Amino acid sequence: MKVEFDEETCIGMYQCVAEWDAFEEDKTKGKAILEDSEEIEEGIFVREVPEGAELDAKFAARTCPVDAIRIYDDDGEQLIP
């Protein structure tokens, strides 16, 4: 499972931070950041979801008010949102 985070879309509500510790607040930017991620294109960050963190990652995606977080299964099919 992978998580994709669009930093440009993020509005800094930090609801994802409360749901999954892979997200942290970046007060200088006023946005969340996805720890241990790789920037695959400008402002788009991706990382694997560790085993046991799948539910937290899904909750983080569901709580994002602007759908800046997307979850994909191992086949690349988008699960959330």
From TrEMBL:
Pfam families: Fer4_15. Keywords: Electron transport, Iron, Iron-sulfur, Metal-binding, Transport. GO terms for molecular function: iron-sulfur cluster binding; metal ion binding. PANTHER family: FERREDOXIN. This is Ferredoxin.
